[in-house]
Design a protein that fits this description.
By secondary structure, the chain is an alpha/beta fold. The protein is built from 22 helices and 16 strands. Bound molecules: pyridoxal-5'-phosphate.
C-alpha cells in the first residue's frame, strides 16, 4: 500500500515513511492509496476476536511494509491490561433506546487519545527500523489538553525518541494541566504557550514545514515527527474501534450484519470522525455521520454551507479539547470527496492560510450534505445534558461526550431516525470534574482538585480513575511557558540544536 500527500500526488511514500514523517513535505497530510475492504466474512470472523486481534486484522490491511510479527508486537504492546483499565478496551454502553456510547477513555490518561497513542510509539519505532532511520526522533505535539498527556505517557522512556508538548496556558482544564506538568520520564518536556490551541498547532506545523530547520536538525542527528492526528499512525488505530463497536452490536443482537448505523462524534480536529468515515470507506455500513461541535461551531457552518471561514472569535468553553477553529483532518475528507484532487486541495488550503476562508464546489457540498449531519451545543446545553443523563439515564458523562449526546438528541427530535447510533464518549467525566459536578449539583462546595474528584465520586458512586487519583502525590516537573513566536527557539534550547 502506498500513501499520497493530499497536496501533491507526486509525493508517494510507504506506510512506515508516512508514520515517521508525520506531515508531507508539501505541508499536506498522508492518505492511503485505497481503502482495503472489510468484508462480511471479515466481520463474522472479527466478532469473536479480542480487541487486540481485531486491531491486528485491520492494521495488516494498511501497514504493508510491516511484518506480521511487527504488527502483532505493536498491537499486543498497546491493547493489554497494563494500558487499559477495562478488559474490553472500548466497551459499548447503552445510553437509551437506539443509542449507545463507545467508551474510549479506559486507557492511562482517561481520554480517547489513548486508543491511538498507546500504539503510536510502537508503530513509530518499528517504522523507523523499516525505513533505516538512525536519527533521534523528536515528537512535537500541540495539544488542546488530551493529546499531550496521552502522547507523553505513550512515548515516556521510549528509546530513540524525545517528546515535547506545547499546550495553551489558559486553554486546558486544571486536571489536564496537572497531568502534563507532573509527567515522568527521561525524554519528556512540556511547555505552556501564551496563545490558544490553533496558535500551538500552527506553530508546530510551521516548524515541520521549515526545510532549513530540518537540515539543521539532521546535522544534529535528529528528525521531527508528530503525534497529532495529522500523523497517519495516529489516525489508523482509531478506525479499529468503529469496527469493534459494530461487532459488539451484532454480538448483542442489536443489529445484524449489513444494518446501517449512525455515528455521532464530538469533534475538534476532525480526526475521530474522519476515522469513522475511513471505516465506512472500508465497508462499515453507515447511514449518517453526526458531527457535534461546541460554540466553536465552524464545522456546523461548514457542513451546512460548504464555506469554511475561520474569521471568527475563538471561544474557550467547558469542552476545551474541542476548542479549535482549524480542523486539520478536514483536508483528508475533502481530498477523498474530490476524487483525490491534490490541486484543488492546495488551492483550498492556500486560501485558508491567506484569507482564512474557502468555499467548496457544489459537487463536494452535496456529497457532504448527503452523509453528514451536524449541530452544536453551548456550555449551558452541555451542562443541562450532563444533568439529564445523570438523572434520567443513570450515566455520568463528561463535557465533550455531552456535546455529542445533545447534538444526537436534537437530531433525533428533528428526524425521528431510529437507526442504531453510536456516540463517541471521549473522556472520563473525572477529567472535567469541575464542570461535571457543577452541572449535576451546583450547590456542592469543593476545596481543590482532589476534593472535587472525591465529591464527584461520592455523588455518582463511580470510582475516580486511578491515573487521576494518583496525581495528588506527583511532583510538578514542568512550569515554563513561552510566547507563540518562541516555539522553534524552545526546541533549539531544549535539544541543544546549533
Ligand atoms: C481530542 C478530543 C476531542 C476531539 O477529537 P478530534 O479527533 O480532534 O475531532 C473530543 N473530545 C475529547 C475529550 C478529546 O480529547
Amino acid at each position: 500500500m502506498r500513501y499520497f500527500s493530499t497536496r501533491d500526488k507526486n509525493e508517494i511514500v510507504s506506510s512506515s515513511e508516512a508514520i515517521v514523517k508525520g506531515l508531507s513535505s508539501s505541508g499536506g497530510l498522508f492518505v492511503p492509496e485505497t481503502f482495503p475492504e472489510i468484508t462480511k466474512s471479515d466481520i463474522e470472523n472479527m466478532i469473536n476476536l479480542s480487541y487486540k486481534d481485531k486491531a491486528v486484522l485491520i492494521l495488516k490491511k494498511y501497514l504493508s511494509d510491516f511484518s506480521d510479527e511487527q504488527i502483532e508486537y505493536c498491537a499486543s504492546g498497546a491493547y493489554n491490561d497494563n494500558n487499559f483499565y477495562n478488559s474490553e478496551i472500548a466497551p459499548l454502553k447503552k445510553y437509551k433506546d437506539n443509542a449507545f456510547l463507545i467508551e474510549l477513555w479506559h486507557g492511562k490518561t482517561s481520554a480517547f487519545k489513548d486508543m491511538a497513542l498507546s500504539i503510536l510509539p510502537y508503530l513509530l519505532t518499528e517504522s523507523a527500523k523499516n525505513t533505516g532511520c538512525d536519527k533521534e526522533i523528536i515528537i512535537l505535539v500541540a495539544t488542546s489538553g488530551d493529546t499531550g498527556k496521552a502522547a507523553l505517557d505513550g512515548f515516556k522512556n521510549v528509546k530513540g525518541t524525545q517528546i515535547l508538548v506545547f499546550y495553551p496556558e489558559d486553554g486546558v482544564s486544571d486536571i489536564q494541566k496537572l497531568q502534563m506538568k507532573t509527567q515522568e520520564g527521561d525524554n519528556v518536556a512540556v511547555m505552556a504557550i501564551k496563545g490558544n490551541f490553533d496558535d500551538a498547532q500552527n506553530g508546530v506545523k510551521q516548524i515541520f514545514n521549515d526545510a532549513d530547520f530540518a537540515k539543521v536538525l539532521e546535522k544534529n542527528g535528529k528528525v521531527l515527527s508528530s503525534a497529532n492526528s495529522i500523523n497517519w499512525g495516529r489516525l489508523l488505530p482509531q478506525i479499529i474501534y468503529y469496527f469493534n463497536s459494530y461487532c459488539t452490536l451484532i454480538k448483542n443482537n442489536e443489529i445484524t450484519y449489513g444494518d446501517k448505523i449512525n455515528i455521532c462524534v464530538p469533534t475538534g480536529n476532525f480526526g475521530n470522525i474522519l476515522a469513522a468515515y475511513y471505516a465506512y470507506k472500508m465497508g462499515l455500513p453507515v447511514n449518517k455521520f453526526i458531527c457535534a461541535s461546541n460554540v466553536n461551531n465552524i464545522l456546523t457552518d461548514f457542513i451546512k454551507t460548504g464555506v469554511y471561514d475561520r474569521n471568527r472569535a475563538f471561544k474557550t468553553t467547558i469542552s476545551p479539547s474541542m476548542d479549535i477553529l482549524i480542523s486539520s483532518n478536514l483536508e483528508r475528507l475533502i481530498y477523498d470527496l474530490s476524487n483525490k484532487d491534490d490541486v484543488l486541495i492546495s488551492d483550498y488550503t492556500s486560501k485558508l492560510s491567506k484569507t482564512g476562508r474557502y468555499e467548496l464546489n457544489d459537487e463536494i457540498k452535496q456529497e457532504i450534505l448527503s452523509l453528514f449531519e451536524c449541530g452544536y451545543a453551548s456550555d449551558s446545553d452541555t451542562k443541562q445534558t450532563i444533568n439529564e443523563a445523570f438523572n434520567n439515564n443513570n450515566l455520568l458523562i463528561d463535557t465533550h461526550t455531552s456535546v455529542g449526546v445533545k447534538v444526537y438528541n436534537d437530531y433525533l427530535a428533528k428526524t425521528n431516525d431510529n437507526t442504531k447510533t453510536i456516540i463517541a464518549s471521549t473522556a472520563s467525566p473525572f477529567k472535567f470534574a469541575n464542570s461535571v459536578l457543577e452541572a449535576i449539583d451546583d450547590s456542592i462546595k469543593t476545596n481543590g482538585d482532589f476534593d472535587m474528584l472525591n465529591k464527584l465520586s461520592a455523588l455518582s458512586g463511580v470510582n475516580v480513575p486511578l491515573p487521576l487519583s494518583e496525581l495528588e502525590n506527583k511532583v510538578v516537573r514542568f512550569n515554563s511557558s513561552c510566547d507563540k513566536q518562541e516555539m522553534k527557539q524552545m526546541v533549539c534550547e531544549i535539544y541543544n540544536i546549533i
